[in-house]
Task: inverse folding
């Protein structure tokens, strides 16, 4: 998949992904990257039984990164303790891919059998040629595009035990929708700054949308985006029309406003190159957004009304909300669900990550991981992790070598003795 006007190719995307994984401290032997073939899906068959002959199936695949952290002797870190790592599946948000989690992937991989999955039709996953906008007639159909593909992927990679499912932003919405359909397969579902929680206010209109964009774009451009969304166009259509030069200008602004804490120029360039390769790939999964969301990221079927369904399901997974303390996705709706007077969730928890906006994985990855460890293990494991990260940071600042594995063993030994 190459395009000179857009400045993209499969080779460049793969190279950009590897660059971020290396920046996250991962080595070649700790990474397994795979494209898993997905069969013709239900929405494709609705186009006609001869779909296979009408369209190229080469794009029917899901891309994932599996992290396998091993000791120096080549064994899995948990094998010596006769423990099996729990499985953790992580989904990215709109306009991104799995490698965007590069700051937290290695650390999560020490505790979990970690799969970082690119949503079907997004990221580095396949972009089926069949135009989704012709088939997408409802929220259910749009959600099934992602859910059906993800379920096929889970079967194909051989995940048979219960697993943790996590998603950020739009990935959080899809994780919630998937968990509602397959609740007994999941141990806990982590909704990290999920979009689609609240209902759209009756008075919300174009003027409210434009006001939100005053600091980032002229009101005229915001009005244009509003009108385009209503006509089933997405922001990436504009970028594709503008080509690689227009996209580079946009990414320069994006990095300075959305990922402010990425201060190193080389790191920022690697992220920009990765997102550039994703943004300008052929439109596919993004068409589903117009079926799922209204302008302003309000869901057509808000999660605040759907998540309480878990109360009626025996052995349903616990729902864990995680937000940044300056997150534009408002945690107040999750707080409402935790309060019984709102007929909310019986088995749920809310965590706030300090010093973070919407992109928690970039703003404060250590704190985000600690919240996950609290829920998946216990407070002690999370506290140990944060202590190790503090020692590691101090060692880096002072230019001293730090043996992280040795520090972790000493902490565990000290706790057992006490």
Result:
């Amino acid at each position: 998949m190459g395009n000179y006007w857009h400045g993209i190719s499969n080779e460049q995307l793969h190279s950009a992904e590897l660059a971020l994984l290396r920046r996250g401290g991962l080595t070649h032997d700790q990474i397994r990257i795979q494209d898993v073939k997905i069969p013709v899906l239900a929405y494709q068959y609705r186009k006609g039984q001869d779909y296979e002959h009408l369209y190229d199936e080469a794009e029917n695949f899901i891309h994932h990164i599996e992290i396998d952290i091993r000791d120096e002797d080549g064994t899995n870190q948990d094998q010596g303790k006769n423990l099996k790592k729990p499985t953790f599946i992580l989904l990215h948000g709109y306009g991104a891919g799995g490698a965007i989690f590069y700051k937290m992937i290695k650390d999560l991989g020490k505790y979990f059998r970690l799969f970082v999955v690119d949503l079907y039709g997004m990221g580095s996953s396949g972009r089926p040629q069949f135009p989704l906008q012709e088939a997408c007639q409802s929220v259910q159909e749009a959600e099934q595009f992602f859910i059906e593909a993800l379920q096929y992927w889970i079967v194909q990679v051989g995940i048979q035990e219960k697993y943790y499912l996590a998603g950020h932003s739009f990935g959080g919405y899809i994780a919630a929708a998937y968990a509602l359909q397959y609740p007994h397969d999941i141990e806990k579902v982590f909704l990290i700054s999920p979009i689609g929680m609240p209902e759209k206010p009756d008075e919300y209109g174009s003027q409210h949308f434009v006001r939100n964009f005053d600091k980032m774009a002229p009101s005229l451009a915001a009005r244009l985006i509003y009108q385009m969304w209503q006509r089933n166009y997405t922001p990436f259509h504009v970028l594709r029309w503008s080509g690689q030069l227009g996209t580079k200008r946009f990414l320069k602004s994006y990095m300075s406003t959305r990922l402010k804490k990425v201060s190193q120029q080389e790191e920022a360039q690697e992220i920009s190159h990765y997102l550039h390769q994703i943004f300008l790939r052929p439109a596919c999964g993004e068409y589903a957004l117009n079926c799922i969301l209204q302008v302003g990221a309000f869901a057509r079927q808000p999660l605040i009304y759907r998540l309480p369904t878990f109360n009626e399901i025996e052995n349903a997974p616990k729902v864990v909300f995680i937000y940044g303390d300056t997150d534009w996705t408002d945690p107040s709706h999750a707080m409402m669900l935790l309060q019984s007077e709102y007929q909310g969730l019986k088995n749920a928890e809310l965590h706030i990550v300090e010093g973070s906006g919407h992109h928690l994985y970039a703003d404060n990855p250590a704190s985000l991981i600690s919240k996950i460890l609290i829920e998946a293990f216990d407070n002690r494991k999370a506290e140990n992790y944060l202590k190790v990260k503090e020692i590691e940071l101090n060692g880096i600042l002072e230019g001293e070598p730090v043996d992280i594995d040795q520090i972790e063993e000493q902490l565990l030994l000290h706790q057992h003795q006490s």
Q: What stands out?
A: Strands lie at 31-37, 61-67, 87-91, 113-117, 163-168, 186-192, 293-294, 298-299, 318-324, 348-353. The two ends are 58 Å apart (CA to CA). Residues 1 and 10 are 5 Å apart (CA to CA).
